[in-house]
Amino acid sequence: MPVHQAPAACAFTMRARGIRKSFAGTEVLHGVDIDIVGGRVLALLGENGAGKSTLVRAIAGAHAPDGGTLEFPTAEGAGDTVSALDPVSARRRGIRMIFQELSDAPDLTVAENISLGHWPATRGVVSWRRLRRRARDVLATMGADLDLDAKVGTLRIGERQIVEIARALSDDARCLVLDEPTAALSAPECERLFGYVRRLRARGVALVYITHRLDEVAEIADDVVVLRDGAVAVAGTTDDLARAELVTAMVGRDIGTVSRPAPSDATLGEPALVFEGATSPPSFDSLDLVVRAREIVCLYGKVGSGTADVADAVFGRRELSAGSVRVLGRPPAASPRQAIAQGVGYLAADRQREGALLTRSIGENLAAPSWPRLSRFGVVKASREQGAFTRWSEELNIRALGGAGQALAGLSGGNQQKVLLARWFERGSLLLALVEPTRGVDVGARADIYAALRRMAADGAAIVVATSDYEEVVQLADRAVVMVRGRVTCELSGSQITTQSLTDAAGG
Asked: Which of 351, 353, 386, 505 is least surrounded, with the fewest CB atoms within 10 Å of its CB?
């Protein structure tokens, strides 16, 4: 794909030079240089913990750098240089950041959200006519069609992201930072988002696009910067940098291309999970599925296909209206607490809201399901939680500078996910139900997680993974079950599992 050519005179240019930042005496950015140019899309890549979020927060005024400068040259050669921005000064320069976690007001309308924080008013009285006109104009600029009167909380995730982008544009955004914008989007929603990004680029907006999906880099980016351990590992245009080079730059080693795992010679065990004619409207219907010990089965489908709801049923979060399910030889649990007691482990798609205890320590998070075993007289000693962390931190390559006592919120997304997975290793779960286990996780952490899951399966666990990531299925599954609108369309195994066969079976 040819690299997009920026306008001759770009409206926005920022040069970050020698940016340094430390937290609690530990330097996480080591003199980073980066250029952001209007009319171009810069893909910012790196493993979880590489420093991407810290860098863009410094650019957007959320963090004050400990060293370096931010330069704002103009086409005429003039401009200014500052050592730091605060949120107000960054806003004045037109810099906006759209975080992975939505920051909208669900109970307000689309029009109200677009002007959130800067409602047009005269003498303290809101002008609803101007507010609606502003919303119509900015959505028209993006080529987006949304009902201005719809409550934002009723919209799909992709539509809510459009509203957040529209809000930034309505406030004269000249530089837009998008943090993992497609992490929770379906394929059609991703394509729509790319269309909006291209429109903004054509208007001269500078875009910084943080992603772990390398196929998106070739699709949408003009320039690429890869961070590794707080420093620039490689920088260039998308035409000049091949995918393999980007992966190697991110992880510091060659982990190869998307490929099937080596065939397992392990003998499969007894059925650990059996669905027979299972129905749970409107999520899935007449589901027949068997997952055996020592087997990894991936349920593949687009967002809304019902795969995640199947995992919820395994963990006692969803009831059946017809059919049956047997979990480890018994009827399904009536609650997650009961499911854990039966030997079932679970990862939710939204780890921060449904799995992580962000303000508690890593040791507490990892040991939580095992507290009854680790406690004496109802008390769990920190040393026992430390022991659990020690057992699994090396196994899963968990990077935690503060050790078991560090708050989980202080870890990168990929390392948080590893901690939540390790809790089921520590618990000794016999059946795992995982929903989008590597969403928002970098390529190196993915490899660590896949290897750990294969080891767990080899040790006798049964694993069912609900995912919308076809590369994940190719790299992980012994068997793949494709679902469309709550029904199984086909089952694949071995060499049949390819990206082409999966996308074809799921409807393209």
From this structure: 353
Instruction: Compute CA 61 distance to the chain's CA centroid, rounded to the nearest angstrom.
Output: 23
What does DSSP say about strands 344-347 and 431-435: parallel, antiparallel, or unpaired?
parallel
Q: What angle do CA 20, 23, 26 make, to 5 degrees?
A: 80
Burial label for 203, CB within 10 Å (0-12, 13-18, 19+), is middle
Phi, psi of 186, deg, nearest 5: -75, 170
Rg over CA atoms, the chain: 24
Where do the domains of the chain lie, and which CATH numbers do they carry? 13-251 (3.40.50.300), 271-505 (3.40.50.300)
Give CA–CA dist 304/315, Å, rounded. 19
Q: For the segment 356-415, what is each residue's pLDDT rounded down to a tens digit?
A: 888 888 888 888 887 777 667 666 677 777 777 888 888 888 888 777 888 888 887 778
pLDDT, position 257: 53
Let me know: does 291 contact 297? Beta carbons within 8 Å.
Answer: yes
CB 403 within 8 A of CB 381: no
Structure-token pair, residue 426: 């520590």
pLDDT in tens, 114-126: 998 888 888 888 8
pLDDT tens by residue, 266-311: 788 999 999 999 999 888 999 999 999 999 999 998 767 889 999 9
- b or e along 42-66 (b: 16 or more beta carbons within 10 Å of the residue's beta carbon)? bbbbbbbbbbbbbbbbbbbbbbebe
